[in-house]
User: Which sequence fits this backbone?
C-alpha cells in the first residue's frame, strides 16, 4: 500500500495541534507540540513515507512554510475562509487539525501562494513603506482635525509647511489645542523622515531585480508602484493568462445565471435571457488593485490613454468602467513584459486598444 501521510497543523502562538492520516484516511496519531522550530522538525522527521502538510494562512504562515518546505513532499498553506470544515458546529484544536487533514486528503483545500523567496525582503520593505505612508496620512488628518475643531479653515497643504507653523499655531486659542498640534507636528516630522528612508531602502532593493527596470517602462507604473507590484505578485508565472491576474487584482466581472436551458418539444434549448453581472470579484488583493487603479488615473495625462478614455465614454461606457478598462490593459501589458524577459515597445499597448 502506498506510504502517504496527510498531516495538518492547527497553529497557535504557543502550541501546535497536529493530526496525521494515512492513505486510507485512518487517523494514525494526534499530538500537541510547542510552536518551536526544533519541535516541529523533530515531529516531521519522525514521520516515514511521503508527507503532505497543510496549515491555515496566518501570522506565522510564511515562517512555518519556509521551515517545513525542505522536510516534506508538499506544503499547502490553505485559505481558512474557503475550506468547508468551518461549517462544523463543534470546535477545538484537535477537531480543527483533524478536519484539515481530512480536507487535505480529499483535495478540498484552496492554497495560498507562498513562493518567490527572492522577493521576501522586498515584500517586507514594501509593507514597511506602506505602513509609514498610512501613519503619515493619519497624522496629517488628525492635525487638520484639531484646526477644524476650532473653526479654523485649513484646506490645502500649507498647514503642514514648516515655515508657516508659527502662524497656524497662533490661530489656536486654547493652550491644550496648541500643545496637541505641536506634538502632532513633531510626530509628522519624524514620520516624514522615516518615510523618506523607507522609500530609499525599498527602491534600492527593488533595483536589484532584473524585472524592475523593464516594468518601469509601463505607462503609469512609476518606481514605487513597480516595487509594490513585484512585492505583491512575487512571480509572474503564478498566472497562466492575464485573466488570472485580473481576478487576483479585483478586475474580474462576477456573473450569475440559473436555469440556463429549457425543454422545447423533445429537445433542449438554451434560454434567450442574458447572463446577469454582479460587479467585480470581492476576493482579491486590495494592494494590487490600488496600484493599477492609481496607475490608470495617472496615464490619463498622456494623449493616447486620454483619447482611449474619451472614446470609451463616447461609446456609452461609464467613467469608472473606462478607468477599469485602462487598468486591465496596464495589468496585461505589465504581465506580458514581466513574463517575456525583454522590454516591449509602446506600440504593444496601442495594439491592445
Assistant:
Amino acid at each position: 500500500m502506498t506510504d502517504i501521510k496527510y498531516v495538518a497543523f492547527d497553529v497557535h502562538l504557543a502550541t501546535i495541534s497536529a493530526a496525521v492520516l494515512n492513505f486510507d484516511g485512518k487517523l494514525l496519531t494526534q499530538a500537541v507540540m510547542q510552536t518551536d522550530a526544533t519541535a516541529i522538525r523533530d515531529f516531521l522527521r519522525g514521520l516515514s513515507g511521503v508527507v503532505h502538510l497543510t496549515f491555515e494562512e496566518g501570522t506565522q504562515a510564511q515562517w512555518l512554510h519556509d521551515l517545513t518546505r525542505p522536510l516534506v513532499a508538499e506544503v499547502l498553506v490553505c485559505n481558512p475562509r474557503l475550506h468547508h470544515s468551518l461549517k462544523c458546529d463543534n470546535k477545538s484544536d484537535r477537531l480543527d487539525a483533524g478536519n484539515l487533514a481530512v480536507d487535505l486528503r480529499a483535495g478540498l483545500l484552496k492554497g495560498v501562494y507562498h513562493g518567490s523567496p527572492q522577493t521576501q525582503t522586498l515584500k517586507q520593505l514594501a509593507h514597511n513603506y506602506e505602513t509609514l505612508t498610512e501613519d503619515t496620512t493619519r497624522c496629517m488628518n488628525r492635525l487638520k482635525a484639531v484646526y477644524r475643531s476650532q473653526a479654523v479653515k485649513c484646506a490645502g497643504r500649507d498647514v503642514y509647511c514648516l515655515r508657516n507653523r508659527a502662524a497656524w499655531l497662533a490661530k489656536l486659542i486654547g493652550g491644550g489645542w496648541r500643545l496637541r498640534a505641536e506634538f502632532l507636528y513633531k510626530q509628522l516630522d519624524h514620520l516624514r523622515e522615516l518615510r523618506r528612508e523607507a522609500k530609499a531602502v525599498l527602491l534600492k532593493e527593488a533595483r536589484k531585480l532584473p524585472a524592475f527596470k523593464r516594468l518601469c517602462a509601463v505607462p503609469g507604473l512609476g518606481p514605487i508602484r513597480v516595487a509594490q507590484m513585484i512585492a505583491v505578485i512575487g512571480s509572474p508565472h503564478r498566472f497562466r493568462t492575464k485573466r488570472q491576474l485580473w481576478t487576483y487584482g479585483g478586475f474580474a466581472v462576477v456573473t450569475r445565471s440559473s436555469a440556463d436551458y429549457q425543454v422545447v418539444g423533445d429537445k433542449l434549448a438554451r434560454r434567450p435571457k442574458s447572463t446577469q453581472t454582479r460587479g467585480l470579484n470581492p476576493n482579491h488583493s486590495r494592494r494590487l488593485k490600488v496600484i493599477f487603479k492609481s496607475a490608470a488615473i495617472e496615464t490619463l495625462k498622456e494623449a493616447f490613454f486620454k483619447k482611449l478614455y474619451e472614446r470609451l465614454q463616447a461609446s456609452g461606457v461609464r467613467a469608472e468602467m473606462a478607468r477599469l478598462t485602462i487598468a486591465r490593459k496596464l495589468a496585461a501589458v505589465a504581465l506580458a513584459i514581466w513574463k517575456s524577459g525583454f522590454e516591449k515597445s509602446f506600440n504593444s499597448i496601442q495594439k491592445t486598444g
The two ends are 57 Å apart (CA to CA).
